[in-house]
Specification:
About 70% of the residues lie in helices and about 0% in strands. By secondary structure, it is mostly helical. It has three domains: about 140 residues; about 160 residues, Four Helix Bundle (Hemerythrin (Met), subunit A), CATH 1.20.120; about 280 residues, no CATH class.
């Protein structure tokens, strides 16, 4: 029974996931809101409300099928009937440690939250959060298999798979959302199609690039791209992909104007061509990722490649920490895009005759460069074999990086450069930002005591409840940990400093108490690490023998000493910098005294 139920459950799970994402995408971006009043701009319209309720039902199907998938996957891996697996708690407990079951359990938990939330969320910002949660729930199964098998760089392959999954799910969900929008009045339908076309263009790029990155991770040296039959095949597929992208862009350019003029038959033509382009693009991307390398890629060679990627580095020094590294493509891309968008915003201000503090720009750029080094530089290389190096990564992403980013005042810059939507019923990026700033979850999270409490609970659970090793030994877990630490650090410093359109402006007493409590928690963490008698990160199980540095428990003691040093020295400097930055920003107010300046961009956001 397992042999046919398991494939059917996986197909149904993927379909339910795409349907859920598509319904939430339609509610978040492809439907008009009721009216232009202040209250209405934060409330979804009637169409969106029905789509969210439908997403709740599809999420319920997704949850049910995922639970079945967990049971039948355990039955398949253990070679036992489902009844024996479920009926024996010892067997069931051992099955939960087998790949890909832990990822499926995470999916079931996320989707369960989604089922309930779709019944209570009414705001547009809430729908966006539900969409983000649904996208997050699609990722764990993608990493449960061997996406990086046969790849010369497993981390690059995993990052490519992440981009590929998000691109495909958003694109496929967007096609469903576009179908749901066909009943809108013609002017609204034209706007929905215009928005979808932008989304589809970015998804096409994401899906195509993910296939390219996966291929580049396999070709070593790069000259094999034009000196081997495999390379020629890859170049031919890339050329076909480029032609496909050009055809899609040309078709949209010719189809959208008639639709805006009221010819609804153009919508059917566009939907059919979009479906063909989607299928062909996904097929090419899958072909690129599945094309065998000239030497083949057996399971043994894939395993060997993974072991080789963990070759022992030399003893840490200034040169190796600065020049060596293990690039994390996703975070490097995020850092590059964040810097580029910020500089574009600054340029728009200057072209409009306004100025922006150079110190804020320098702070933003420095923050992302430090984040890139912490996640992709020499520190990331040594974090694979040293607990202390991984702890320094987390401290950097929780303390100096978010402090520099908050001091860059990106929210204020966005408020000055984003253009208001020309139709209040169709909010754009500026209105979405306003909805986010007014959302209740954000108001709660950025309260300094709440943000600090969440950080404290996270540190306790990760370091002392067995989750640290799980996150460290998984590429997905490592990226998730990086992002979570950075976001919580940003929420903490944003709330403490109370600048950049923060929802709250804490009193000096609140700032002093919160910062003092954070230093005390760092001291407690350092002492706990120094006195721990177990291998927290599972570094003893890697099979690597370091010829330099302290042993595993000695390295944990070093990590505790570093934490105490940070608490006693660096934290004081960070606190002083934060208070000075806050004081200067509050004295200056919004740059040069204007709280809500007119936008300087020319194009409308919708």
């Amino acid at each position: 029974m397992t042999t046919w139920v398991l494939p059917a459950a996986r197909v149904l799970r993927d379909v339910a996931a795409v349907v859920t994402v598509g319904l939430l995408l339609a509610a978040a971006a492809l439907g008009p809101i009721p009216g232009p009043s202040a209250q209405a701009t934060r409330t979804m319209g009637s169409h969106a409300y029905r789509w969210v309720l439908a997403a709740g039902w599809s999420a319920l199907v997704w949850f049910t099928v995922t639970v079945l998938d967990v049971g039948y996957t355990a039955s398949d891996v253990l070679g036992r009937p489902l009844g024996e697996v479920v009926g024996d708690l010892h067997v069931l407990g051992s099955a939960l440690d087998l790949s890909p079951i832990p990822g499926l359990v995470v999916v079931a938990g996320l989707v369960a939250v989604l089922v309930v939330a779709c019944r209570v969320v009414l705001s547009r910002s809430g729908v966006v959060m539900l969409l983000a949660l649904a996208l997050a729930a699609t990722l764990p199964p993608a990493f449960g298999g061997h996406s990086g098998a046969g790849s010369g760089d497993h981390r690059m392959a995993v990052s490519a798979m992440l981009v590929h999954v998000v691109g495909v799910v958003l694109w496929a969900g967007g096609l469903l959302a576009l179908t749901l929008a066909h009943r809108l009045p013609t002017p609204d339908l034209a706007r929905a199609v215009h928005r979808y076309s932008r989304l589809a263009g970015w998804c096409l790029v994401a899906v195509g690039l993910s296939g390219v990155v996966n291929v580049l991770a396999r070709i070593d040296p790069l000259s094999g791209l034009w000196q081997s039959w495999y390379g020629w095949l890859v170049l031919a597929k890339l050329g076909a992909f480029g032609v496909l992208a050009a055809v899609g862009g040309l078709h949209r350019r010719r189809t959208l104007p008639p639709l805006r003029r009221g010819r609804r038959s153009a919508f059917v033509q566009l939907a059919i061509v979009e479906l063909v382009i989607f299928a062909a693009t996904v097929g090419l991307a899958v072909g690129l990722s599945r094309t065998p390398t000239p030497g083949g890629a057996s399971g043994a060679s894939a395993h060997a490649a993974e072991i080789d990627s963990l070759v022992m580095p030399e003893a840490p020094g200034v040169r190796s920490l600065l020049l060596d590294g293990r690039p994390e493509p996703v975070f490097l891309a995020v850092a590059g895009v964040a810097i580029a968008l910020y500089l574009i915003g600054v340029r728009r201000l200057r072209r409009g005759g306004r100025v922006w503090p150079p110190a804020a720009t320098a702070s933003w750029v420095a923050g992302w460069l430090l984040a890139a080094w912490a996640t992709s530089g020499g520190l990331a290389r040594y974090a694979e074999v040293l607990f202390s190096a991984n702890l320094v990564q987390h401290l950097a992403l929780a303390l100096p990086v978010p402090l520099l980013l908050v001091a860059g005042r990106p929210v204020t810059l966005a408020q000055r450069t984003l253009t208001p939507a020309d139709d209040p019923r169709w909010p754009g990026p500026r209105e979405w930002l306003s909805d986010l700033l007014g959302s209740r979850p954000l108001h709660v999270l950025v309260r300094p005591p709440v943000a600090l409490a969440v950080q404290a609970v996270l540190a306790g659970v990760v370091y002392f409840a067995g989750l640290y090793e799980t996150a460290l030994r998984s590429e997905t877990g490592t990226m998730f940990a990086y992002g979570l630490v950075l976001m919580l650090g940003y929420a903490f410093w944003w709330g403490v400093m109370g600048i950049d359109a923060a929802p709250h402006r804490p009193t000096p007493l609140t700032q002093a108490v919160t910062l003092g409590a954070s230093v005390a928690l760092l001291n407690l963490l350092g002492l706990a690490l120094m006195h721990a008698q177990t291998d927290i990160g599972g570094y003893r199980d890697t099979g690597l023998s370091r010829p330099w540095g302290p042993r595993v428990l000695g390295d944990q003691v070093l990590a505790g000493e570093i934490t105490l040093w940070v608490a006693g020295s660096v934290s004081v400097l960070i606190v002083v910098a934060a208070l000075l930055t806050t004081r200067r920003a509050r004295r200056a107010g919004p740059a040069h005294g204007h709280s809500q300046p007119r936008p300087v961009a020319d194009a409308h956001a919708s």
